[in-house]
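Teaching note: in complex prediction, the entire set of molecules is handled at once rather than each chain in isolation. The prompt given to students was simply: 'Predict the structure of this complex.' The entities are:
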Amino acid sequence: MASLRYYIITRLLLTIPMVLLLLSLIFVVLRVMPGDPVNAILGPKAPEEYKQQLRAQLGLDKPIHEQYIDYLVKLAQGDLGKSLWTRRPIAEEIMEYFPATLELTLSAMVIAVLIGVFTGAYSAYRRNSPADHTLRTYAIVVYSTPIFWLGLMLQLLFGVYLKWLPICGRADPLMEPTRITGLYVLDSLLTLNFPALVSSIRHLILPSITLGIVLSGIFVRMTRANMLDVLRQDYIAAARARGIPERLVVYKHALKNSLIPIVTMMGLQFALLLGGAVLTETVFSWHGMGYYFIMRIYYRDFPAIQGATVFFALLVALVSLIVDILYVYINPRVRY
Amino acid sequence: MEVERARVEEPPVGMVGLLLKRLRKPAYVGEYMVVAGLALLSVFLFLALFPDLVAPYDPIAIGLGPRLAPPNSQFIMGTDHLGRDVLSRVIWGARIALLVSTSAAVLSLVIGAPLGLVSGFLGGKLDRVLSLVMDSIYAFPSLVLAIAIAAVLGPGIANVAIAISVIYIPTYFRVVRGEVLVIREQLYVEAARAIGAKSPTIMRKYVLPNALPSMIVVFTLNVADAVLTEAGLSFLGLGIPPPTPDWGQDLQRGLEVVLSGSWHPIFFPGIMIVLLVLAFCLIGDGLGEVLNPRLREP
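The expected output is the structure of the full assembly:
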């Protein structure tokens, strides 16, 4: 296990240049962006001396490289700075918005894996049957669907026409549970607040289905491909030769082994999931990190955009590290 | 002797010729997919090249009919919130979608592939630095990056294409570099070097042709993804500015009319995106099977 520890440390060290690189890119890119944050805060008609004062106060009057070094020094101390828009510490804001994204992406991932793994395995089991062709078509059509359009159509159908489900927000007004973790469903359970639980779940259904369906296509394809690969292996032939029923061979022997690459897939798809979450959150006014990011781009809130970028990069690095470690535990043949 | 004769009888037709010959009689799923995708794509190409022949109205003319009129005999797909004809806008939208997505993919190919080629071939420090840069971009959520760049560059066709191209450069870099690392060690490259071929010659004559099949597949799938990304950026208001007809931008307006229950200004632009992306996905996935017989399905 010593080599695993060595591997983890190397991986952690490697995330530093990655985060730095993306941060520098975003930093420079933001400074050349047309649109002055001071104008966005005070309005374009504010007197020039007020603008100058605020610019100096925010450190925006210094040359870019000085601003950059200032930012890096603070970042090394764990300080992401303050938002230009709300004047609140950005770390605090991220902690407020992130649980919403976590709740959405986790439930979407569960939906995607449930749909993808079972139908993908069935598709491989009944290869070239009508069911297989239908599922393969499903996978490719779902991949081609713009996530925000699917969200809009689901809103129209279930929200506007059938009036079954709410189409925006995370809970009915005044029904939010007391904040503990920030995951509304979990918080409602912890505080035994059942009206809030019902409200949060009802709000969560459409966004997570939207994101989950779009993601499920990839899982159908991957599971099917992995299953077909595994089903060609000698040990499957051996299992069949021993007279084990085909169903058991497929769902017990083959599926378990083809799940291993799927764990890696979940890690790789995480970046895609985050991108999808940005659009889903915009459609459903779901106040998560994606919504935060987009809003702060509209407001030209530099520190907030930088903070969110650093956060996204760290998150992606962390998830891929966790997935790699998980991989070692579920597949003892792998050693680093 | 047998081998010699076979070579004389079949003149080299090149990959494209070979492909066209095969596709005339599709034999397995992958080839059917390519044919179906090409058929679908040609419809979109026609719409993009000659929208004025097909579209019944001016796509940006306001107040052609009542606002948000449902589909009827005069306006087959109804009208949007400004009384514009949805059908005409949807037809003209094909032009922007194809233009932006293909130019973005071409741009990233032109930048990413040579970088991958040189990086993989020369190795050393340059390779390590470039790989780190590319891996960083690759690992980051691509849509988030495209949003940031598009926000900086501002709306506009060229700017959106540039923003999208940045996120695919690492894909070409990785594909080409991976291919180069394999090919570099082959005996025929060593032979070429032994008879005095220079590095640029080896890259052009031996490495590039071998990397070509996988690049074609990656290119097609990237265009598919670029159509989705362009629509996403325009949906967020960071893409094509109004009044230019664009599917993503029409859907942004759709977000505002959802509550009124008008389905037609939302449904039709979206279904066009689905079909166009589907066309490229079918071609890309199908070509993947055609060019890589290991993936082939009966």
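Point out the following to students. Chain A touches chain B through 49 residues (CB under 8 Å). Residues 231 and 237 of chain A are 8 Å apart (CA to CA).
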